[in-house]
From TrEMBL:
Keywords: DNA-binding, Phosphoprotein, Transcription, Transcription regulation, Two-component regulatory system. This is Response regulator transcription factor. The modification 4-aspartylphosphate is found at D56. The lineage of its organism: Bacteria, Bacillati, Bacillota, Bacilli, Bacillales. Residues 128-225 form the OmpR/PhoB-type domain. It comes from Heyndrickxia acidicola.
Length: 226
């Protein structure tokens, strides 16, 4: 699953951090690769050619400052550095070497995501217009979804709902969760509205056998990308 090819490289020698960030960023639609140390990260970057690198400062072997310096020589790559130390000198050194942002551990995933989007807006604004996921092409600027090379005729709510389902494909999404994300927390209607809109989307997707948007009784819905 890719947001028009936006690739993120994670470099950290803490396996739990790598796993947490990898799963979170993949669920947001990014193409993610990970490296457990600086040298591996630099070598992987040459092949992967990420748009954004997120790297820890304090790593065994090659530290984050050395990695940052080497990555910046590879081209237009945004770098976000992570550190457990709230040291002004470290931040200044990282920014001097070319880092574009700095975050102190522990941090919230939501804040990291916001900083990633800020880097994309600044470095690669042209990549935000379109999301490519399997047979779906989602264009936010035009509020348009193309499925199997066919433009779907969708209402504004259907667009938001289908986009939410597709971007989170493979995940089971409950009706309350869908209501919160699509209709908003202050929605005062019935959960059955979700069923109505799902039925409409299935018709427009020609998903008569419910193989694309699956119903999991008692749990919710899941989109399966073929």
């Amino acid at each position: 699953m890719q947001i028009k090819g936006i690739k993120i490289l994670l470099i950290d020698d803490e396996p739990s951090i790598l796993e947490f960030l990898e799963l979170g960023l993949q669920s947001e639609g990014f193409d993610v690769q990970t490296a457990p140390d600086g040298l591996t990260g630099v070598n992987l970057a040459k092949q992967f050619q990420p748009h954004i690198a997120i790297l820890d400062v304090m790593m065994h072997g090659m530290n984050g400052f050395e990695v940052c310096k080497m990555l910046k020589k590879m081209g237009n790559m945004a770098i976000i550095m992570l550190t457990a130390k709230d040291e002004v000198d470290d931040r200044v050194k990282g920014l001097t070497l070319g880092a574009d942002d700095y975050m102190i551990k522990p941090f919230s995933f939501e804040e990291l995501l916001a900083r990633i989007h800020a880097r994309i807006r600044n470095h690669f604004p042209h990549l935000l217009d379109e999301v490519l996921i399997g047979p779906f092409r989602i264009n936010d600027r035009r509020k348009e979804i193309i499925y199997q090379n066919r433009i779907l005729e969708l209402s504004a709510t259907e667009f938001v709902l289908l986009k939410f389902l597709v971007i989170n494909h493979g995940l089971v999404l409950s009706k309350p969760h869908i209501l919160d994300k699509v209709w908003g927390y202050d929605f005062g209607g019935e959960e059955n509205i979700v069923e109505v809109y799902i039925r409409s989307l299935r018709d427009k997707l020609n998903d008569k056998e419910h193989r694309l948007i699956r119903t999991l009784r008692g749990a919710g819905y899941r989109v399966d990308i073929p």
